[in-house]
Specification:
Number of domains of chain C: 2
Strand content of chain C: 5-15%
Number of strands of chain C: 3
Number of helices of chain A: 3
Oligomer: heterotrimer
Number of helices of chain C: 6
Shape of chain A: flat
Strand order of the largest sheet of chain C: 1-3-2
Distance between the termini of chain C: 24 Å
Helix content of chain C: 55-70%
Distance between the termini of chain A: 54 Å
Shape of chain C: globular
Helix content of chain A: over 70%
Order of helices and strands of chain A: HHH
Largest sheet of chain A: none
Chains: A mainly alpha, B mainly alpha, C mainly alpha
Radius of gyration of chain A: 16 Å
Structural class of chain A: mainly alpha
Structural class of chain C: mainly alpha
Number of strands of chain A: 0
Order of helices and strands of chain C: HHHHEHEEH
Radius of gyration of chain C: 20 Å
Strand content of chain A: under 5%
Chain lengths: ~90, ~140, ~170
């Protein structure tokens, strides 16, 4: 039962990643691409947690935490760049 | 029993993650697209993380709670990045299906957010008003 | 009082940081608790310049109730937004509303903006220069005035009771 759920979940999250990639490539505006990237980070965390449960390895948590931190900082930096045209003032 | 509960959590999480990204794909303007990922994704990843915490707590001896940390972090940061993205989009005057209110309350920021089209439009308006106003004054 | 506030400038932040440290290391060994308390004590002291104002929670019980309401609303919000996304995109009626603010402290305003973004179909988009209005984008709403009243009553009033004097 658990294996079946994880397989289905893998499929769903992979499709979600695919849709994010499509939005990332298509645009049309820069904020759209940043939003797609932000969602990609979150989807990557979801994939990592699924992989962690599937393989029974708790080490994936550290990678997920790092992606969460870096993803947020990246989004904020890109938004600041759009707002000010500059990141470090 | 625990297995069914875990499966339910994992499936709920995956479905919400999927719907969030579907919103990103389907909705028609940027401001609407913003809603999908910020909401559906927080609950989606939230329930996946809870599933992971329950799984590792039940498998190993002792409680594994550090997944709560990521959940907490995502719940705090998701609205912040959404707010910043919306602000950037307003700054760039992105097209919106909803009417963006004219911000008379904060003209300073309005000047900053004008892009070329708006900047071209603004002087003509001023010209019009200056053309009209002198006769009024003379009358 | 001054002595105490210099020694422990943020009495709420310190235990929070200690708790976060314990979550991060995923253990409650005595050594980790000690290290967490040490970090919780030194980090606020070293970063004092970033947090000039002291946070006071006037009504802890209201805060607990507010958190409960917020969690419930987040779950409801997810189902509402999921239904809107799966439905016909042409039928959505997105609007921008300007929410007049009664809050003054920046912590309360940012908490309100975060709550608005996490709850049904609304994203806070911009705070006006004079901090009196919050621009909110609504995914689909037929009655904006009613929504403003709901937000003010459900989120702003408790936040005001918790963080500001009434």
């Amino acid at each position: 039962m658990l294996d079946f759920a994880i397989t289905v979940a893998f499929g769903l999250v992979t499709m979600a990643v695919g849709m994010c990639c499509w939005r990332l490539l298509r645009g049309p505006s820069t904020p759209d691409r940043i939003l797609a990237l932000d969602t990609l980070y979150v989807n990557a965390i979801a994939l990592l947690m699924l992989l962690g449960i599937h393989l029974g390895n708790a080490l994936f948590f550290e990678a997920a935490l790092l992606i969460a931190l870096m993803g947020f900082i990246g989004t904020v930096a890109l938004c600041k760049y759009l707002l000010r045209g500059d990141i470090i003032e | 029993m625990l297995e069914y509960f875990l499966s339910l959590l994992i499936l709920t999480g995956a479905i919400f993650t999927f719907i969030g990204s579907l919103g990103l794909l389907r909705l028609k303007d940027f401001y609407m697209r913003l809603h999908g990922p910020t909401k559906a994704t927080t609950l989606g990843v939230g329930s996946l993380l809870i599933a992971s915490a329950v799984f590792f707590s039940s498998r190993d001896a002792g409680v594994s709670l550090h997944e709560v940390l990521i959940t907490l972090f995502l719940f705090i940061t998701a609205p912040v990045s959404a707010h910043l993205l919306a602000k950037a989009a307003l700054h760039l005057n992105l097209h919106s299906h909803a009417k963006i209110p004219v911000n008379s309350a904060h003209p300073v920021e309005d000047k900053d957010s004008e892009i070329d089209g708006a900047r071209l439009a603004a002087p003509t308006k001023e010209n019009n008003s200056s053309d009209i106003s002198p006769p009024h004054k003379s009358v | 009082m001054t002595m105490r506030s210099r020694f422990l400038p943020h009495p709420i932040l310190s235990p929070l940081l200690a708790g976060l440290w314990l979550l991060l290391t995923n253990s409650i060994a005595p050594g980790q608790i000690l290290l967490g308390l040490l970090l919780g004590w030194t980090i606020p002291l070293l970063t004092l310049r970033f947090w000039p104002e002291r946070v006071t929670i006037r009504k802890p019980f209201t805060l607990v109730r507010y958190t409960g309401v917020l969690l419930y609303d987040i779950i409801v919000a997810n189902f509402v937004v999921a239904r809107l996304i799966l439905g016909n995109p042409d039928r959505l009626k997105p609007v921008f509303i300007e929410l007049p603010l009664d809050l003054t402290s920046s912590l309360a305003i940012s908490l309100l903006a975060n709550s608005i973004t996490l709850t049904p179909g609304t994203v806070s988009a911009r705070l006006s220069e004079d901090r009196r209005h919050l621009l909110v984008h609504v995914l689909s709403e037929n009655d904006p005035d009613n929504l403003i009243a709901v937000i003010k009553d459900r989120y702003e009033r408790p936040l005001r009771e918790i963080f500001e004097q009434c």
